[in-house]
Amino acid sequence: xxxxxxxxxxxxxxxxxxxxxxxxxxxxxxxxxxxxxxxxxxxxxxxxxxxxxxxxxxxxxxxxxxxxxxxxxxxxxxxxxxxxxxxxxxxxxxxxxxxxxxxxxxxxxxxxxxxxxxxxxxxxxxxxxxxxxxxxxxxxxxxxxxxxxxxxxxxxxxxxxxxxxxxxxxxxxxxxxxxxxxxxxxxxxxxxxxxxxxxxxxxxxxxxxxxxxxxxxxxxxxxxxxxxxxxxxxxxxxxxxxxxxxxxxxxxxxxxxxxxxxxxxxxxxxxxxxxxxxxxxxxxxxxxxxxxxxxxxxxxxxxxxxxxxxxxxxxxxxxxxxxxxxxxxxxxxxxxxxxxxxxxxxxxxxxxxxxxxxxxxxxxxxxxxxxxxxxxxxxxxxxxxxxxxxxxxxxxxxxxxxxxxxxxxx
Length: 410
Fold this sequence. Notes:
alpha/beta; Rossmann fold; 2 domains
């Protein structure tokens, strides 16, 4: 039996050990990409404004004045408080970029150029540099200068239109999925660029647009429109064109999610709910026939689930090898033994001695697993260390602090 790696133990070598990354972005997309690299050993130098830091520090629920989200988004990173608006701060970034492997930014297109930090300029000094640029609409095209947050990318990418009950207003996914998808596409781009650099010695620019990252996950949406003129519409908890799969109300008011859309799975499901007439109907032997009669099938399954509490429903479905599950809240997640066994609920100890549970690391590598090596940094916590590594003297660092170009450790 395969067992997940023990992330509490230090692996022999981290997968990305020795990779030096400058993170110039803020909030979600760029920092999430950097966090993913940091989990696997990359040295992330997160550059933040000295006066306020990354705005995410103050988003949602705060503990002792800092968002608990911060401990997830910025773990394993070092914080350099540096004012990018000053010529001296920009020069320090140029020096850092000369020794960096990757630079990540998610400002509006043109911001880096305005600071004298264009990829072209940085790569002239360091041809091996890989630059990840995440923005709402990409670095080119007629919309490039528009501000774009994840929710806008979700809408333009086609996702928002589908997340609704038929005839009702589309709702947003409850997390910043557009930002996260773009971050993960950015990580893929970085790994591809590293492979190319390994072969050629050349760095390159990776251009990720939020709406394109969402659009890339929209399955057959475009070819269905191109071929048939079909505009996929909201379908609530069902998945149009695949049957039966839906959320079915149980006796105790909870819902069971049932995916009975495989041919053999469908037969097992119908046998379980005592509908041999449907199980043996030749017209229902494949998905095309089932889709044509999806309302009849949903009604049959609903009639069965409505007579049983959700726990009993799921137990019976599991015995019949029919994919099924219930809708989890975070309380369900925190209590679930499978989450615990897979190392997805990690307890950390904060600087004040209190405990906090944070998500584990994904994906799980057998030889070089990710690791939660250090807490998210306080603003400017590593400023002195990073500048000293660059060769600046204590006197030079103090002068920069006195002029407000860099920030003192919090």
